[in-house]
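Researcher: Next entry in the queue.
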Amino acid sequence: MHLFATGADGAISLRLLKALASSGERVVAGVLDGERGAAALSFARKYELLTPEALSNIKLVEIDPSDVESLAAALPRRGRVLVVDGDQPPTGRSAAADKVWL
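Model: Structure for this entry, 102 residues:
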């Protein structure tokens, strides 16, 4: 079974990818910017945030949410979809709330 996850280059998404890929899920990670997504995975590899086994379960794909064809091409034929939107801390919160958020 595959899982398609959007927003896969953010801090929260990276934590979700880690949990999913480490448990053996095969994840197709959709990102808006392929370079930023690759940099996030490179960072995770460099600092051993993801094991080599978990990294092997992640396939990075660049997507354009406004282009139905790019989304259709990225989706696995069978599987589930996880949408992570707004992977930034909300504004207007206290500093303590922002620390909890991150």
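Model: The CA atoms of residues 89 and 101 lie 6 Å apart.
Researcher: Noted, moving on.
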